[in-house]
Amino acid sequence: MARGGAKPGERRGGRRKGTPNRATADIKAAAQLHGAAALERLAYLMTNADSEAAQVAAAKEILDRAYGKAPQALTVDPGDKFTDMLKAFLGSIDGRSRGLPQHRPPMATSPVSTNTDLPH
Length: 120
Description:
Blueprint: H1 22-32, H2 35-48, H3 52-67, H4 82-91
């Protein structure tokens, strides 16, 4: 009997969307045991850290968890042409996101023939 692949009524095989990986679920469960203590420590650092940068970082972490991370805006000069906007957008992507092409170094070119017998 064949294993894996699409089941009857499914478009493709594998885990259903939203089903957590077992290893990821175990790590998440273990981390959640320390969630309350971590939040308490962040709140302490937010109000008592010596460095203002540490206070801001702690406040940001708390806000990100409470309300989600703020959306990242892409600003482009309205006078730019479409290709310039596209270059700016693609330059802002790290290339590691799913579905985006990876950066490849330029291909090496073959040496150009320097035949001196040809007319100039």
